[in-house]
Amino acid sequence: MTLIALLLVLTQAQASPAPSAATAVARLRAKLPVVALTNPSATQLAGHYTSTPKELGEHIGGGFLSGDDLYLFPDGTYIYCEWADVMPTIIVDKGRWTFEDGVVALRSDPDIKWHTRLERYFVAVRRVSHPHEAFLVGIERALAEFEENAKDGPGFMLLVVGKKREQAITPAQTPRLERKLMRESWRPDFYHKD
What we know:
- This protein has one domain (23-188).
- Helices cover 31% and strands 30% of the residues.
- The chain contains 7 helices and 9 strands.
- A hairpin with a 7-residue loop joins β7 (121-127) and β8.
């Protein structure tokens, strides 16, 4: 066994399994009144989710220096972008998404040949007081960060660690938006630089 293979096996053995959707929702609910989005269709769950929602900007009183955007399309595909004030918007991942057992799961396309560092599993929730919203909260890392930092402001912390849907995406909008994102932000050569 090569050293790299051994390290991968050890890393996977030490990693704790991601919690189920019910457990993740219960952990969120212990700090903040949220409701799981149960059995939404792909069209109902599809949308532009962002780490920098307008509501968070209003709380902090300004703009953002970096962020990420996850586009879940109703056809089951997704595009995940990152951006910063010193970097243009770049697609860091794309592929297919599913919603099973209360969890949104992302699976990269074969042409994503780099390590993405992204969470792959999210629970879909909304705040009880906001019947038409949707948040995706990563259950591999973001959930623990929420619990650790939500002491005095769980609503604010949900905005910080979650990805809030800012806009729904309809089947009719999908082809045009996918083409635009690919044309403007698909830069695989960015990952092949020394």
